[in-house]
Design brief:
heterodimer; A: mainly beta; seven-stranded mixed beta sheet; four-stranded antiparallel beta sheet; 11 strands; 0% helix; B: mainly beta
């Protein structure tokens, strides 16, 4: 149980276009989902926290107008990279916490999406 | 404030020898601690977690970790390394501070030599 999927797993887009990445909790409902960015050979950097039905909370330095996050249901959160540039190329990973997991700190991670902007 | 320090950026062992990946943490709150493994171009897989129960935690693939509050450590060990263990390992601390905060260590790359 507790599987998180991401789609697509790999995407190439041209500079100036937008790309949407989906994160789904397959067998549980996720009140909270997290979006991370990972540069090569580095740790994960939290970009934003999204709660179902409310606006996402962005970490300092993350442009909310560039990285649009929507968490419209308890099983789906989307990250849209708008007007992508080559510096946005990265590995994007989402994670989810189960609904009702007030005392559980565990996050379930998706397999990641490799974005390459040409 | 919370922080996580993985003491080695990379560790190299021979197949069949023990593995030790070191992690120290700092937290003003009672933390939950996790070890995750990441293979190249993959997401994170949970190896084990400590959530205030037994201090010696056993995980998957023969890994275990011991929570030592006095030393603020949560080192990951395995008695005998396998080639498939070669990957990046992350020590993670989570605390509830009104909200929910997770801090990732910088990661330790494990190399396993034949």
């Amino acid at each position: 149980g507790a599987v998180v999927s991401q789609h697509p797993s790999w995407v190439i887009c041209k500079s100036g276009t937008s790309v949407k990445i989906e994160c789904r909790s397959l067998d549980f409902q996720a009140t909270t989902m997290f979006w991370y960015r990972q540069f090569p050979k580095q740790s994960l950097m939290l970009m934003a926290t999204s709660n179902e039905g409310s606006k996402a909370t962005y970490e300092q330095g993350v442009e909310k107008d560039k990285f649009l996050i929507n968490h419209a249901s308890l099983t789906l959160s989307t990250l849209t990279v708008t007007s992508a540039h080559p510096e946005d190329s990265s590995f994007y990973i989402c994670s989810a916490r189960a609904q009702g997991a007030f005392t559980s700190y565990e996050q379930y991670f998706g397999p990641g999406t490799r974005l390459t902007v040409t | 404030a919370q922080s996580v320090t993985q003491l080695d950026s990379h560790v190299s062992v021979s197949e069949g020898t023990p593995v030790l990946l070191r992690c120290n943490y700092s937290s003003s709150y009672s933390p939950s601690l996790f070890w995750y493994v990441q293979h190249p171009n993959k997401g994170l897989q949970l190896l084990l977690k400590y959530t205030s129960a037994a201090t010696l935690v056993k995980g998957i693939n023969g890994f275990e970790a011991e929570f030592k509050k006095s030393e603020t450590s949560f080192h990951l060990t395995k008695p005998s390394a396998h080639m498939s263990d070669a990957a990046e390992y992350f020590c993670v601390v989570s605390v509830r501070t009104g909200g929910f905060k997770t801090i990732f260590g910088a990661g330790t790359r494990l190399f396993v030599k034949a």
